[in-house]
Amino acid sequence: MAALSSPSRRRRWSVAGAALLALLLPLLSVAETTPEPPAPIASGAASQPTVEALLAEARSALEQADLEIAEKLARQAAEQAESREQVAAALDLIAQCLFILGDAEGTAEAIDRLVEHLPSYEVSGEIVGPKYVELYRSRREKKVGFFAPVCKPLPCERYLVDGAEVRAGAGGELAVTAGAHTVRLLRHGFEPWESSAEMEIAAGEHKVIEVELRQVARDLVLQTVPPGVEVLIDGRVVGRTRAAEDDPEAGRFEMRELSPGEHLLVLRRECYQRLEQRVEIVLDALDPGPLDLGRIELQPARAELDLRWDRPAGLLSLDGRQVDPGPHELCPGRHRLELQLAGKRSWFEEVELSSGERRVLEVRPRPTLALAPPVLEALGAAAADGWNQLVLDADLAARWHQRVTRGGRSAPPYPSIERRRVEIGDLALPPGIDLLVMMDEDREAIPATRRLLLFDPVTGMLEQTAWPLAESEQALAVAAAQLAPAQPAAVAFVGFDVAGRLAGPPVITEVHPACPVEGLAPGELLLDLDGRALDARDPVRDLARRLAALEPGEAIKLRVQTAEGPLLREGKVLAQVEPPNPYRLGTHLLLPRLAAARSVSATAEGQPRFLAALEEGMILAALGLDQQAARLLDRTEIPADLDPSTDLRGTVWTVLESLLRRVGAAEYAAEVHARLASLGGARFGGRQGPPLSYATGTPLR
To answer: E-strand spans in 205-320?
Structure first.
């Protein structure tokens, strides 16, 4: 902003100016030695000084009687000023310089410009003395009048003259230049008042403006114990009560301009019970001030979380701090828990606790599923129980999608599954992810199918399926079900086989050495099971159905016909592990099962660890990862008491023999084949599978 039209020039000292300065020196407190003048502002400098810095340097130069530098800096500040106050301060400094130099005409011009620019500005005689103040006020009185607004029922807070905000002086008056002006008066909670026409005011005149404001809203005031409480009005967060404990007004909160009517006030703070209160705002002409709710005290709130983890290994953390298993008293709200085993985050979960709640949480290591944003809603809930879930950043998910689908064919129609290896190069996933799940539509101009893509970062295997868009919900349900971790199942083992006859009860044809029912012998007739006769129309099928319904450990009673007559045989059903059958694995999505098995085998102990390792080896074989599968199955020791029928052992050895032959270990394959001869009537893939002799040498995929 240009302050004065006259150019800046070096002014020579006149006799009068020198005499005036000599009179002012005692007031200036100038040091005995003249200090160095401030360095001039270099044009084109890398960083321009701020307006406030220029004003401060100009004021310092004026105090040191370096009038040329002071005037130059003040003019530069006036040109760069961004507010009316900055322009006025610069004009004031210019006028003071000219006043000291005895330039009466220049001083008058600067003062007049200052008054026109900001009539309410007040000058100080601290540097130049009281005569400058008298000169300023005398010239201002010839140009300025004063409005004195009187607002009722409460004082106004803001004043606008001709659309520009004006600050009231010490007496509450508004200084304006003589002439016609529009005036607008404001206070929060009241309708603005505006003059209906321009108001005339003469120089030196003091005009009172009496205004009756109409209230349209009311303030709300409260104080909470404890302080720092979050405040919500009608479901919207409007702030917090003052938090400083040593503040005399700690806990105080003021909400401005609430409309008349009922409002819902909610106060909440961590570790305290949430408080809800209905507040009625009524406009009161006799008491227009804020509605004061007084002191409101929140009650403490607690919850308890009991973490169950009985293994010595592993680090548990709660909200980022390490904790021990057992009960923990917590504040209600959301809490994050993690378990690290062998440096890997094996379990994490967020829980929401309500006030007074006591919850027991079993810590269960499980694999981690990384979901791209589009698939989260579709599959997230279905996989929540068996997986840790992470949502990939959209940009990272897009780059992974581009990498795993590059060079690939469109997936075959559902339920067919395409599997292939993918080279990922240097593209990395966040640590600890066991399976990446993505979804997209086909690449045609008008998409007709949607694809589900599963990627295992450990093996580099990709599985993908596709289905018509019209069947998306049904196919997603199938995919979600296959994301449920599956492990070899324990089934009832009764240890004998039967054959049907043209008429009459079935005959027992073979009894396994580990049969849990003592005394059975081949050739005996089976009359009834647990006191109920077999269906005469199809006794063999009825027997198979009823035996399949038995649970491991359940008691069993058989009545058989022997040479000595009918006898009752009793025993307890044993548990047999049903091995995963590579023939059947191909119709499933294998990568979710592989990730789940790998996680269990890395974190569990005892039988669960063995079963998971067995599952992992079978899946690797079905995926065609022959060397990895052979290495894992070869070192898997099968406990004798886990497989009384030897079906599990026979299935594993048959798969291992086939893998060894494919990887070129013929000698070791022959050794494994020799073991199979000792297993008698074992079947491939469980009691419902074919004899081992039919499975030997059969491709696994």
So the answer is: 206-212, 218-225, 230-233, 236-240, 252-258, 261-268, 275-281, 291-297, 303-308, 315-318
What pLDDT, on the 0 to 100 scale, is given for residue 129?
A: 92
Max distance between CA atoms of the chain, in angstroms, equals 151
Torsion of CA 75, 79, 82, 87, to 10 degrees: 40
The pLDDT of 214-236, averaged and rounded, is 95
pLDDT for res 29: 38
* Strand pairing category for 218-225 and 291-297: parallel
What is the pTM for the complete model shown? 0.61
Does residue 139 surpass a pLDDT of 90? yes
Q: Are 439 and 475 in contact (CB under 8 A)?
A: no
Residue 354 confidence (pLDDT) above 70: yes
DSSP strands (E only) in 271-398: 275-281, 291-297, 303-308, 315-318, 321-323, 326-330, 333-341, 344-353, 358-362, 368-371, 388-391
The larger pLDDT score, comparing residue 218 to residue 46, is at 218
Q: Which domains does the chain have, with CATH numbers?
A: 15-36+46-141 (1.25.40), 144-212 (2.60.40.1120), 218-297 (2.60.40.10), 303-362 (no CATH), 368-482 (no CATH), 489-575 (2.30.42.10), 579-695 (1.25.40)
587 pLDDT band, cuts 50/70/90, is confident
CA distance 517 to 512: 10
d(CA 334, CA 349): 10
Rg (CA), the chain: 45
Q: Tokens 């070899």 label which residue?
A: 488
**Which token pair is 689?**
């599978």
Other C-beta atoms lying within 10 Å of the C-beta of residue 559: 18
Instruction: Answer whether 295's CB lies under 8 Å from 223's CB.
Output: yes
CB neighbours of residue 33 within 10 Å:
6
Q: Tokens for 563, please give them.
A: 């040479």
Between the alpha carbon of residue 272 and those of residues 252, 305, 351, 455, 595, the distances in Å are: 17, 17, 18, 45, 42
Residues counted in the chain: 701
Burial class of residue 540 (count of CB atoms within 10 Å of its CB; 0-12, 13-18, 19+): middle
Position 173 confidence tier, pLDDT thresholds 50, 70, 90: very high
Please list, in sequence order, all residues whose beta carbon lies within 8 angstroms of the beta carbon of residue 302, skipping any fewer than 6 positions away. 271, 329, 330, 331, 332, 355, 356
pLDDT at 115: 93
Q: Which amino acid is at 511?
A: V
